[in-house]
Design a protein that fits this description.
alpha/beta, single chain, 6 helices, Endonuclease, Chain A
Length: 188
């Protein structure tokens, strides 16, 4: 009889101890931060861009346009930005403009010409301050932050590390950061 009471007590204890009401589920039923390394960056970002509905904000130190290679990762990302804009999603791109790096300026200016010819809103930061950020914000729900520039070496051969963030409070802070940068940027 004592065993029966003991078993009954243990069953009741485990039922209450394992009750799930107090367990917090991660946002969106999945991890709120995912590490995105090396070659995975392009596919993760392309997927997120294709699902965007309201806006995409990008701050990028270097964004390289390759006019004769439409299959490379950079071209895929640039084309996804253009397609996103054509779907009616607001797109803002902020690029670095340097007062000492003419090679970087040529790269970003070429991308500026290409994207603005497709009606994408592109601006440059002040040449007196370096915007070294690599940031993409989508619909206030997802942000990508890390080391990856949009260049062939970064997307195809470098060791790069980024995170995809789906924690809305953090994404909101990153969006405020972007809006401050955008507010002090200028057209070319």
């Amino acid at each position: 009889m004592r065993r029966l009471y003991l078993y009954g007590f243990l069953i009741i204890f485990f039922l209450f101890a394992c009750h799930k009401e107090d367990v917090l589920e991660p946002p969106y039923g999945e991890k709120s931060v995912i590490v995105v390394n090396n070659r995975d960056y392009t596919s993760f970002l392309l997927s997120a861009l294709h699902e965007s509905k309201d806006y995409v904000y990008i701050a990028m130190y270097m964004m390289k346009y390759y006019p004769f290679d439409s299959s490379c990762g950079e071209s895929q990302l640039l084309n996804a930005i253009i397609e996103t804009k054509q779907r009616g999603v607001e797109v803002k791109v902020l690029l670095e403009l340097s007062d000492y790096n003419s090679s970087l300026n040529e790269t970003n200016e070429s991308t500026y010409v290409f994207l603005t010819s497709k009606s994408v809103n592109v601006r440059f930061d002040s040449p007196t301050i370096t915007t070294h950020a690599k940031l993409v914000i989508i619909d206030g729900k997802i942000a990508f932050v890390g080391s990856t520039n949009w260049s062939k070496s970064a997307l195809e051969s470098n060791n790069e590390v980024n995170v995809e963030i789906k924690e809305e409070d953090i994404v909101g802070e990153l969006e405020l950061y972007f809006q401050n940068l955008w507010g002090s940027s200028r057209n070319f």
